Amino acid sequence: GAYVLQVKATDADDPTYGNSARVVYSILQGQPYFSIDPKTGIIRTALPNMDREVKEQYQVLIQAKDMGGQLGGLAGTTTVNITLTDVNDNPPRFPKSIFHLKVPESSHVGSAIGRIRAVDPDFGKNAEIEYNIVPGDGGNLFDITTDENTQEGVIKLKKPLDFETKKAYTFKVEASNLHLDHRFHSVGPFKDTATVKINVLDMDEPPVFSKPVYTMEVYEDTPVGTIIGAVTAQDLDAGSSSVRYFIDWKNDVDSYFTIDATEGTIATNELLDRESTAQYNFSIIASKVSNPLLTSKVNVIINVLDVNEFPPEISVPYETSVCENAKPGQVIQTVTAADKDLSPAGQRFSFRLSAEASNKPNFTVHDYRNNTAGIETRRNGYSRRQQELYFLPVVIEDSSYPVQSSTNTMTIRVCRCDSDGTILSCNVEAIFLPVGLSTGALIAILLCIVILLVIVVLYVALRRQKKKDTLMTSKEDIRDNVIHYDDEGGGEEDTQAFDIGALRNPKVIEDNKIRRDIKPDTLRFPRQRPPVEDNTDIRDFINQRLEENDVDPTAPPYDSLATYAYEGNGSVAESLSSIDSLTTEADQDYDYLSDWGPRFKILADMFGEEES
C-alpha cells in the first residue's frame, strides 16, 4: 500500500455526454507487485518488503478506458518503469564464524598479516562496513582497518611476534554498518561477529642480546689483557645454535679492546689514559654458528675511571708583592690550585708551608679550606735595601687516593708603597733615586735619553751613506760616462774623423796625456818575424812568438794580449791568418777580390782605389 506515483489520462470526448469521457485505470502487467486505483490512477505497492537485492527494476503496463459510447469503450495504455531505491535494511554477515591465519614471527610491525570479509547485500553507503577487534586476547598485538575499495577487514601487526614466547593468538572481530536507518532498528542489530585464530610460524632468527646497551667501567693504566666485562646473546629458536662474538671495527679506537669469540668477555688491549679519552663507545656483533648471516648488534659503553697520578699545582703564576710598610697578618695574595687529573666532585686541596719555611718569620700560608689559601705577612715592615725578593715554598695536597702533593715556590717582591698601600715602585734602582722624583718624571727622563740615542744613530748612518754615495759617484764617472757625437762620419773611407781613444778613456780629452792602457803611436813599428814553415807544430809556433815578445825592447810596460791564429794545410782559400802576411799593406795585392763575385764588389772597389 505504499504510494509510488499517480498517472492521469485525458479523453477528448464531451464529458457532459454520457460516460464517454469517464476514464477507468487498470494494470495489465506488473501484478502482483503493484496495484492502481481505478478512479485516481494512483499506483501503490501490492506486496510488503519488496527487496531491491532480489529485483531492482519493474515495468508496469497501465490501461485507461472510457466507460461507454457508441463504440463500446475505448482504451489507451502506457508503460511505467519503477526502480526500487536501496535502504539500509540488511546487517553485515560473516560468511563463516572462524578465520584461520598463519603469520611468520619475522613479520614487521605495521605490516598486513591477513584479511577477512563480512557481506552486506545493501548497496552504496548502506553497504559500508566498519571492523573492530573486541577487547580481549590479541587486542594489544593486532589492529584492523577497512579497505574502502573491497570493504574487507585488513589485520595489521602492532607489536613483534615471537614464536618462542607464544605460538597462537585468538580474538574476535566485529563488523557493523557505518550508516544506520532508524526506520529499520526493529529489524535487529546491524552487526556480526567472527573469531580470528592466528598461528605464529617459527622462523630462523638472529641471536638476542640480554641487554639493549652494556655499560662497563675500568680504571686507567689497567694492565693489558684485564677482563672488564662480558656480553651475552642467545639463539631463542627451537633448535638452539651456538653464538660467536666480534667487535664491529670502525676506527682505531676499537683496537683498545678485544672480545673472546666464544665467551663474549671484553678485555683491554692497550693501556688506557683517562686524561686522553674518558669514554669508549663501540658495537659488538653476535652471529649464529649455524647461519652466520643472521647477526645482531649491541652498543657497548666503557667509562675510564680516573687514577690519581698527578699532584695539584698552583693554577696560575702569581706576581706577588709586599709593601715595605706592611703590617703583620696582612693578606698579600690569594692562591688557588689545579689538578691535571679529572677532579671528582667534592675533592679538596690543602695548603701549607714547607718544613724549612715554617721556621722563618717572614710569611705564612692560611688555608681557607675551600680550595683557596691566603699568603699573609708575619713581620712588621720589609726593607728592599736588605732583601728585594723572597721565595716562599707552598705545599699543596689533594684528597684523592693515593694522595699526591707538590711544592710550589712563590716569588714575593718588596715594593715601595704609600700610606694607603698603593705600590709606587718595585724596582731596586728606584732605591737610590731622590725622594722627590716621581715615577712620571723618571719615565720622561728615560724617553729623552732614548730619543737622543736615536738621533745620534740616524746622524751617523746618514754620514756613512753620504760618503758611500760619493765614492760610488766618482767610480761611475770613470766607468760609465757616455760621450755623444752628433756629427756624421764620412763613410767607410773616413778613418780620421775622430780619435777613437776618447771612447776608451774620457780623461784623455782633458789631460791629453799618454795613455797607459793602449800602445803609444811612437812604438808602433813593424817587427820582423821569420816566416813560419809549413806543418810547424802550433805549440812550437806559440813558444817562438812568446820568446820574441819577451826579448822585444819595444814592448810597452803594460799588460797586453797578443792573439795569433794559424790555419793548417788543405784550405782552398789558403790561410786567412796575418802570421804569414807581408810586412806592409803596400805589398798586398787585392786584385783577387774581383774574382769573388758580386757580393765582394764594394770591398774590391774600395781596396782597388787605395792601391791606385
Automatic annotation (TrEMBL):
Membrane topology, record value: Single-pass type I membrane protein
InterPro entries on file: Cadherin (IPR039808), Cadherin-like_dom (IPR002126), Cadherin-like_sf (IPR015919), Cadherin_CS (IPR020894), Cadherin_Y-type_LIR (IPR000233), Catenin-bd_sf (IPR027397)
Domain of life from the UniProt record: Eukaryota
Gene Ontology CC: adherens junction; catenin complex
Pfam families linked to this entry: CADH_Y-type_LIR, Cadherin
PROSITE patterns assigned to the protein according to its UniProt record, in alphabetical order: CADHERIN_1, CADHERIN_2
Residue spans crossing the bilayer: 431-462
Domain Cadherin: 1-94, 95-209, 210-314, 314-432
Location in the cell: Cell membrane
Gene Ontology biological process terms from the UniProt entry: adherens junction organization; calcium-dependent cell-cell adhesion via plasma membrane cell adhesion molecules; cell migration; cell morphogenesis; cell-cell adhesion mediated by cadherin; cell-cell junction assembly; homophilic cell adhesion via plasma membrane adhesion molecules
GO molecular function annotation: beta-catenin binding; cadherin binding; calcium ion binding
Keyword list, A-Z: Calcium, Cell adhesion, Cell membrane, Cleavage on pair of basic residues, Glycoprotein, Membrane, Metal-binding, Repeat, Signal, Transmembrane, Transmembrane helix
Function as written in the Swiss-Prot or TrEMBL entry: Cadherins are calcium-dependent cell adhesion proteins. They preferentially interact with themselves in a homophilic manner in connecting cells; cadherins may thus contribute to the sorting of heterogeneous cell types.
Protein's UniProt name: Cadherin-12
